[in-house]
Amino acid sequence: MTLQSADATADTVAAPQFVREDLLQAARDRTGLSDFGDLWFLEPMDHYIAAANAEARLTPEGFAGQTEVIVKGLASRLRMVEDIRRHPEILEERLEVAGIILGLPRTGSTIFHRLLASAPGMTAIRWFEAQNFAPFPDEEPGNPAGRRAYAQAMIDGWLHLSPELASIHPLDPDAPDEEILIIGQMFVSTMVEAMTFIPSFAQWLDTYDQSRGHEDLKIILKYLQWQDPARRGCKWILKSPSNLPYTEVAARAFPDAVLIMTHRDPLDVVPSYISMECALYKLNSHHSDAEVAGFWFQRLAGWMKRFEAARERIGEDRFIDIDYRQVAREPLRQAERVLARIGVPIDARIEAALAEFMAGNTREQRPAHAYSLDRFGLDEPTIAAAFASYRERFIT
After folding, report:
1. Could you tell me the pTM of the whole model?
2. Average pLDDT of span 353-371
3. DSSP tally for the chain: helices H, then strands E
4. Structural fold of domain 96-394
């Protein structure tokens, strides 16, 4: 791949730069295909490239890693467009997205998502599918071994570079995970800023209509269902903290879905999430704790303000609220509340599946996640003031 270089003095090595056409061509070369379908994603892609080239301060390994993230997403798009050309029945798949989990990050949403998805009749995007949503060329139907191996290699690489991730987020190729991992490959989700420190892109993203990303997500969910016919008739459960600031986009895209909001005190959420972001940025760049904390504290507070206004416009009838403390005390009861709300009858089979999942997925099975406000130069009164209305309604 030909790379342009940033300005550099004679004594320094220029940082590599992303170039749109080089990335597109790398995906064409990988797949032997050329039709990306609708090219709407080029606008957010260009904004990402400009911000990453100016601000990201990627290490050589980080630049290579982010290049792979981009190219694999473009390759999946090429393969999907080709599969739809060959199999137009993909677009005829009947899709039911029954619930969308949102809320601040670090509110127990991952374990709750996986608990709900474990119920018979439910389904969710798996982590390996989020990394490569199109089958590899040599893949046998029903046996995505290559994609699973790719995902496991990613996890192994992440944990080698940032071991603390094992205590922060449970990584499993086959476990349900977030749709922003897919939407981020279209450059229109907060996953982009979560993996690359690009404040100017985050600011731009707040002004951009992300509905095209969700329209493509509908197609990708149909595509995943077509790949695995056992999912037909199942109810999809989506989940992403990225939905919080852009709740109305997700609500419009899936008008029949219940909006499931997970709640936890921001006094715990903010340092926990900043710790996670420090671990993620460590994979590809060098940024101080103070830089990361300064950006993400304000970002999370801004997300909540946007959400509070959106929830009022959407209306309370779309929402069900789940308290982190209640999930810790009675996870099965809280899961059954949601399942009943989305029309899944609770019977002995459902109860047994939920109990079996929880027996194999307790928090104690992973290392403890250590974090503190002091590490990030934050204090409780500052956070409490930023989230005052939210804490008054849902926490205190």
Report:
1. 0.91
2. 71
3. 19, 7
4. Rossmann fold (3.40.50)
